[in-house]
TrEMBL record:
SUPFAM superfamilies linked: DsrEFH-like
Lineage of the organism: Bacteria, Bacillati, Actinomycetota, Actinomycetes, Kitasatosporales
Protein name: Sulfur reduction protein DsrE
Pfam families xrefs: DsrE (PF02635)
Top-level taxon: Bacteria
Length: 115
């Protein structure tokens, strides 16, 4: 599990979270990436393309690789505060809340990173 709270407001932390998630997926690790706070905007089509950080992999590519073999979840409350609904999301991204987060965190072999 990787929880990313940062977005364009803290680009290095944001990029690190997506990079770690993508590398983990490429390594065969089961990944669940949670978008909260300012990273919530990256659940919307086109928003990741607006993100730029020198010497970092493009965010759209990282999201694509994570969704290919992992899971991306947008926090329910974060979505509601930004008036984001399921119909607004990139295909493959889901909205879920604290109960699902806790279930995943308590699953066997679960480890969590927060960015």
């Amino acid at each position: 599990m990787i929880k990313v709270t940062a977005g364009a407001d803290a680009p290095e932390r944001c990029s690190q979270a997506f990079t770690v998630a993508a590398v983990a997926v490429a390594s065969g690790v089961e990944v669940s990436l949670w978008l909260t706070g300012e990273s919530s905007w990256f659940a919307l089509p086109g928003r990741a393309a607006e993100f730029e950080l020198p010497h970092a992999a493009p965010l759209p590519d990282l999201i694509e690789s994570i969704l290919a073999a992992g899971r991306i979840t947008l926090c329910t409350q974060c979505a509601a505060r930004r008036e984001i609904t399921e119909k607004d999301l990139i295909e493959g991204v889901r909205i879920a809340g604290a109960q699902v987060f806790v279930q995943e965190a308590l699953a066997d072999d679960a480890q969590a990173l927060v960015y």
